[in-house]
What we know:
It is a single chain. This protein has 142 residues and is α+β, with helices and mostly antiparallel strands. It has a single domain, classed as START domain (Alpha-D-Glucose-1,6-Bisphosphate, Chain A, domain 4, 2-Layer Sandwich), CATH 3.30.530.20. Helix content is 26%, strand content 44%. The protein has 2 helices and 7 strands, in the order E-H-E-E-E-E-E-E-H. A 7-stranded antiparallel beta sheet has the order 1-7-6-5-4-3-2, covered by helices on one side. Strand 6 (88-98) and strand 7 (101-111) form a beta hairpin. It is globular and about 45 Å long. The mean pLDDT is 93.
Amino acid sequence: xxxxxxxxxxxxxxxxxxxxxxxxxxYGDWNATHTSFPQGGPATLxxxxxxxxxxxxxxxxxxxxxxxxxxxxxxxxxxxxxGPMGVNLAMRYSLTPDGDATTVRVDGEFTxxxxxxxxxxxxxxxxxxxxxSLRKLxxxxx
Length: 142
């Protein structure tokens, strides 16, 4: 298993951060691993919604089928995905209001047989991507 996390403070209210975070039409503007949604993002962002995403992890293309596990607008979004080679992924975005700003934390988890072979590199690559994504998200929202 490889676990990654990143956190930042964005100078904007949680509702504004959430609006950008869940605007799937502009996902690629900030998400460093995203390449496309072959059939678009989820029609309705709610628990049980599914969607497919093309990503680039450690420089390699990956197709992931995601399912929304938790969704509390302006607070929490948790998704679980199935990727290539039996890799399972989980992403948890939590937003905590802090005055006129918002603390955004992202936690990711990668599991599966293939992960054990490359856990260290995957963790480094994913952590770098999460930090870059949060920097881009912050610049777009603030």
